[in-house]
């Protein structure tokens, strides 16, 4: 948009201890500016924000420019979300500042693997029903739960962000997408304790490009098939990415359940995987908890039309490719072209294993294809 046509409304926020009231006052003023773009600026400095939920729609574009550090309260807090944006059409979250979630003060409360009544910790940045928007340049540090979650949103670009949390921090997914379409994640660095990017049910037309991932659990589709009425996953492209020191590399994971849906039209192209435990992994018996009966039933999620192209690097384990598909709905049209994954450990040569898979392999085959 040409600057001559922008209606700029600057609200510089000088916070003392808690910035919630200043945030909301500035937002209320900006949201009522008709047309153009209104800008809310968080200047350099450190500001404590307990919880901030911004509800649109607004009369024009809203830009939150963060140059300082926004700090979450320490410990276990009552809110499900820390900073949330809902019902926007035209939102920009920009700047070189940091959202500091102080997750290190709450990760010990994340005991959902053992406690079915556990309460979810807050997400750092939540985008709900947000369209035609951009997140650019910001930093997210030590989220209590997910760093960024995108839900029921369309045409979102995330560009040049830096997301970081320790390797052993639980459920600190970098960017999680669900029931959203036309999402672009570009030119970013994500180093977390869980998935760098996770794409859940209803993720459609997602492009992950030039993302550096690691540590963490790699770039994942799923988990799928856990809840009723989940929507298909369709049109995923992961391209020109580097994954280093991750537990998994490129992973698709589904629960062994009766929930029916499909994941299809998925392309991984020109990806470097350096020293990952499981570089390529399709897991249709996914279960992160103890006590799961993985033999009880096959997954009802159909995985099909998947391309792995120009995947190269090294595996930390001998088993570089694992395709563990459903006996009820075998993986169909799974294609490999120029896979070059090396293993230098004591067990021997690099291997692949397949179960209930149909597809093809051509070009370089390291490990030798099991399809």
UniProtKB/TrEMBL annotation:
Query: What Gene Ontology biological process does one annotation of this record name?
Result: carbohydrate metabolic process
Q: Any signal peptide, and if so, which residues?
A: 1-22
In terms of superkingdom, the source organism counts as Eukaryota
Q: Which InterPro entries match?
A: Glyco_hydro_28, PbH1, Pectin_lyas_fold, Pectin_lyase_fold/virulence
Q: What does the sequence similarity comment in the record state about its family?
A: Belongs to the glycosyl hydrolase 28 family.
What GO molecular functions are on record for this protein? polygalacturonase activity
Q: Which Pfam families does the entry link to?
A: Glyco_hydro_28 (PF00295)
Ordered alphabetically, the record's keywords are: Cell wall, Cell wall biogenesis/degradation, Glycosidase, Hydrolase, Secreted, Signal
Q: Where in the cell is it found?
A: Secreted, Cell wall
Q: What is this protein called?
A: Polygalacturonase
Active site per UniProt? 217
This chain's source organism reads Trapa natans (Water chestnut)
